[in-house]
Amino acid sequence: MSVTVLIPTPLQKFTNNQATIEATGNNVGELIDSLEQHCPGIKSRLCDESGKPRRFLNLYVNSEDIRFLEGTETPLKDGDEVSIVPAVAGG
């Protein structure tokens, strides 16, 4: 199964400057592990020490925030699009 992952500019140094890559996984957690295999070092930027997505990153599956779905257990299917979006703060 192939999933398109949209990579934000700050993380593209791990993907050879590619803004989109294809990866596999039955759920978001497996997808992150797949990304780490192909783009070493990216998982530590996406996840904390316990393996949960960092709080300053938002992950979306087909425009749905995984925090309101099943978190890293959110299932994926062929053709899904996962967006990695850094949180923006200001004041």
UniProtKB/TrEMBL annotation:
InterPro entries: Beta-grasp_dom_sf (IPR012675), MoaD_arc-typ (IPR010038), Mopterin_synth/thiamin_S_b (IPR016155), Sulfur_Carrier/Prot_Modifier (IPR052045), ThiS/MoaD-like (IPR003749). This is Molybdopterin synthase sulfur carrier subunit. CDD domains: Ubl_CysO_like (cd17074). Gene3D superfamilies: 3.10.20.30. Pfam families: ThiS.
